[in-house]
Amino acid sequence: MLLKCYSNLTLEAGTDEAGRGCLAGPVTAAAIILPEDFKNDLLNDSKLLSEKNRDLLKPIIEASALCYSVTHIEPSIVDEINILNASIHAMQESIKKLQPIPNYIIVDGNRFKPVDNIPHSCIIKGDSKYLSIAAASVLAKTYRDEYMNMIHEEFPMYNWKQNKGYPTKEHREAIRKYGTTKYHRMSFRLLPEQLTLELTEAI
After folding, report:
1. Hey, is 63 helix, strand or coil?
2. Residue stretches of the annotated binding site for a divalent metal cation
3. Which UniProt keywords apply (predicted)?
4. Which residues are annotated as part of the binding site?
């Protein structure tokens, strides 16, 4: 059973991100404030839900929320500031777009940077403990999946519709065969032998 809130304050926002470990596509975050009377027995950490159940929950969460927002941070920014900072930045930007402004923030994970002096707490595996973080995880995942489905049409050979940019064997084989795209994160180790190749070329 997920807990309603951490702080006992009425405008507590939960935030989470999706796509941190991907080789391609954005890192996507969502932030949400749920009403105090919100209940849903199906809601859980998005990683523990089927795609069907995530898609089922998305409109329910959106209709129930006091407010929510979603932010995509593009691969070029991920490469520029690194994935940890990009994940935090995506969550910060999502929180900044919330109206009303939250008076407390709970964050999935163990790292965060303050937003406008709003107090916050980082909660390890928060997406399987608190309703608002779980709801944010579902929104982040479903919006990112939609984005990957869209760019799949542009580059179908990578099968992002299926792998969503994660480092599957098929995705890596496609990178080996077709090279990279503007959606790939060039600072990531895209191929297992990449470091060996770079060393060989440098000699």
Report:
1. helix
2. 16-17, 108
3. Cytoplasm, Endonuclease, Hydrolase, Manganese, Metal-binding, Nuclease
4. 16-17, 108
Q: How confident is the model at residue 200 (pLDDT cuts 50, 70, 90)?
A: very low
* Nearest alpha-carbon partner for 99 in 139, 61, 66: 66
CATH of domain 1-203: 3.30.420.10
Phi/psi for 88 (5° steps) reads -65, -45
pLDDT in tens, 141-152: 999 999 999 999
71-104: pLDDT as tens digits: 999 999 999 999 999 999 999 999 999 999 999 9
- Is 34 within 8 Å of 99 (Cβ atoms)? no
Predicted TM-score (pTM) of this structure = 0.93
Give DSSP secondary structure letters for 128-167. GTBHHHHHHHHHHHHHHHHHHHHHHTT-GGG-HHHHTT--
Copy the structure tokens of residue 184. Answer: 């790939």
Residue pair 132/40 in contact by the 8 Å Cβ criterion: no
Measure the N-to-C terminal CA separation of the chain; round to a whole number of Å.
57
